[in-house]
Specification:
This protein is an alpha/beta fold. It is about 30% helix and about 25% strand. A hairpin with a 2-residue loop joins strand 4 and strand 5. Helix 2 packs across helix 3 and helix 2 (about 110-120) packs parallel to helix 4 (about 155-165).
Length: about 325
Amino acid sequence: MSSEYLIEVKDLKQYFPINTGFMKKTYLKAVDGVSFQIKPGETLGLVGESGCGKTTVGRTLLRLYEPTGGKIYFNGEEVTRQNMLSLRKEMQMVFQDPYSSLNPRMTVEDIIGEPLDVHKLYKTKEERREKILHLMELVGLNAEHARRYAHEFSGGQRQRIGIARALAVNPKFIVCDEPVSALDVSIQAQVVNMFEDLQHKLGVAYLFIAHDLLIVRHISDRIAVMYLGKIVEIGDADEVYEHPRHPYTVSLLSAVPIPDPKTARNQHRIILEGDVPSPMNMPTGCAFRSRCRYATERCGKECPPLEDRGSGHFVACWNK
């Protein structure tokens, strides 16, 4: 069954049970009714402050966490409850921390070769070695690095090893969970450019999770903005960046540093008041209303739906 979308997520929920006392339990709503689509070869950037549920979306999408509710479709086929072993070849992940996501007891050759072993993607040892060296070349690593261990590499090189491991099974979709946030700024540009080059060569689609809005705009076709487990705005990358509609998106973009001092002086920084509500004790209605200058009575009673405001620009706000 084919579909216009490679990935389709409908009303995805991920609640974690938290013990609050003897025989008492409450639920932390890390992801609460998220929906989006990603086309083949497209990059969807997912942004939001720490703790808003970005990483949980990525992990739940790949079923590293079993979803509490909602549906996940891959290439038109529902995979919410399906055995994931066969789909691991199609969907991969690049983890945030290149220091802890690589086995320190394995050589680079074995780290990259492990997916090949699991899915039996070679017939001879020579073919396995050829594939590993090709993957290393693809991500900018030298053949002599194959026998070394992860601790012998810099952060940028380790992340390249992680990317080569994800590419080993020739996936159609990769979740990139803040893949450059642990790297030096000088290395970040190299790794982001490499992601783009690989996309052009291999046609892979990305869910690119990040904090840095400049990087997200650079690499993404569309951008989704998350706040406390919900998507509050989603649309074309340039459209969201140039014409943000949701008050939270406006405040996020006002904090992006501008390299030109004259322009930066005229830029009005919007500082949000109040604290982020606890996901264990969410306010009624719109989750952002306690920090929003435009909040009305309606915002406290009803949670706004994500609605199309034209040209595929969706916003969840009663007043914008």
